[in-house]
Amino acid sequence: MATFMIVHGAWSAGWAWKKLRPLLRERGHEVFTPTCTGLGERAHQSGPEVGLHTHIEDMLAVLDYEDLHDVVLVGHSYGGMVATGVADRAVARLSQLVYLDAFVPADGQSVFDLIPPQARERSQAQARDEGQGWLLQPNPLPPDTAAADVEWALPRRRMQPIKAFGTPVRLSGAAQALPRTYVYCTRCGPGDVFRPFAEAARKEAGWRYFELDASHNPHITMPATLAELLHRIAAA
């Protein structure tokens, strides 16, 4: 069976994958859901200097210290930025790269390069006015999130250092040889920034493409369906 390492999205952390972990382990897989610096249980480590490269180093350290090989690396949302940087530097430790409703950057791109200019400007203004110049408030949870899940998740979401969105990823192209999969969540609605990556993956050679009838956090709203899909992806 496979070893999964899942890179969470912005404002989130390893805790958000609590429902999914046992479902993958029941299928015989090993699962790691590390938390990036400054978020979740590591919120006390946050600071203006924390950015994308910090989070890439976090994940590279897990691969190294846990001595992981043949890893199915999954990046969710902002985690696609991190996973892309990790894959470029640790391709020998990976078997597959999976983007779950995630950004897929090219060399030199940041999150702010991949979202509409007005969204970037709103984020920068919010950090300036409400986040001491360097923090971003969490986005709202999708409207189909169950009330119990909102009650569980909201207190655990933490503000994101804006440097994580403004830092460009640097890539050599080493990870291009990895099998890559895009999983697109189709219920994202207006303002969906992930649709262009889904459409590109559906058309370009070298990608497998799947859709989930889910909003942006299927690990919370439909973990059993996501676990089965990831199991199929790992087995292919």
Written account of the structure:
This protein is of the alpha/beta class. The chain has one domain (3-235): Rossmann fold (3-Layer(aba) Sandwich), CATH 3.40.50. It is built from 10 helices and 8 strands. The chain has helices at 20-26, 52-65, 79-89, 111-114, 117-130, 147-153, 163-166, 195-203, 218-221, 223-235, and strands at 3-7, 30-32, 71-76, 94-100, 135-136, 160-161, 180-185, 207-212. It has a 6-stranded parallel beta sheet, sandwiched between helices. It has a two-stranded antiparallel ribbon with strand order 5-6. α3 links the parallel β3 and β4. The longest helix is centred in the first third of the chain and has 14 residues, at 52-65. The protein is globular. The protein starts with a strand and ends with a helix. The mean pLDDT is 97.
Query: Which band does the percent of strand residues land in?
Result: 15-25%
Mean pLDDT: 97
CATH superfamily: Alpha/Beta hydrolase fold, catalytic domain
How many structural domains are formed by the residues? Answer: 1
C-alpha Rg (nearest Å): 16 Å
The CATH topology name reads Rossmann fold
In helices, the fraction of residues equals 25-40%
Largest sheet: 6 strands, parallel
As laid out across the biggest beta sheet, the strand order is 2-1-3-4-7-8
The best one-word shape is: globular
Second rung of CATH, namely the architecture: 3-Layer(aba) Sandwich
Please report the number of helical segments: 10
N→C terminal distance: 11 Å
The CATH class turns out to be Alpha Beta
Helix/strand-derived category reads: alpha/beta
